[in-house]
Amino acid sequence: MWPVAAVALLLVVAGISAAVGWHRATGTPGRVAATASDQVQRASSVLIVGDSFVGGTGDPSFPVYPELLGELMGWNVRVDGVGGSGFMPQLDAGGRRPPGGRRAPLIERLPADQRHYRPDVVLVDAGRNDLGRVPSQVIPYIDDYFERLRAAFPQARIVALIPTYATDREATNLPALRAAITGAVRGYQGLVIDPAAQHWYDRADLRSLLGPDDVHFNGAGNRYYARRIADALRSAGFGVGTQGGAAAHGGPITTGDGVGASTAAGTGAGG
Fold first, then answer.
1. CB distance 82 to 103 below 8 Å
2. How many Å separate Cα 261 from the centre of its chain?
3. Taking burial as the number of CB atoms within 10 A of a residue's CB, which of 9, 125, 218, 239 is the most buried?
4. Residue 265 located in a structural domain
5. What was the pLDDT predicted at 57?
6. Mean pLDDT rounded to a whole number for the chain
7. Is residue 214 part of a domain?
């Protein structure tokens, strides 16, 4: 795999300086005319955690998908996206951690997320940089992270995307990672969205969604990805500007064909 360097961006959100990855407030709160007084319904506060697919590559010419998803769903979105990161610590060619906390794994960023955010929904879009690693090394980090995530945000709905790239190549460890993520999230009555199992990237014009590195989404790719996620969320019962979700009143929901489904996930590149 080719980890992509972290984008060194630090933004102030709601007056709080958060020195973890890339955090920003996006999205437009949804409005409803529910009463004669035309009261405003508070949009759900959503934290999206992941790698450079979440935080962006620094290209200012188009918005990254979390901003677009916030607009589509009427959500207030906060972002913790660190390029090159994953569930487990990322190492250089010499087996060493990057200096200065760069590419910090999700679990090391969780305490700061807990201090700064009070989300109704946590969407985890991570694991691309763990593709190709030995499953027995990655899975304990997956289990530990989701256990601590639930403890940190006990009232939040958890949504996880199965890690994939926009390609028809499949990582050898993807079935094991899929099973681990699905098992952990289902255990907390969460929603799993599986782009590969739903054949999001079985399309002839796939190249038109990618930027110059043939790994990250361009503007069209970010729009496509945001729209597919929004469709999956709505299908699972998440409403616009609501905490929502049919699973809040019943069992867990998995968007996709479930564990062991045929996939089109990518390998050999970082996020």
1. yes
2. 20
3. 125
4. no
5. 93
6. 77
7. yes
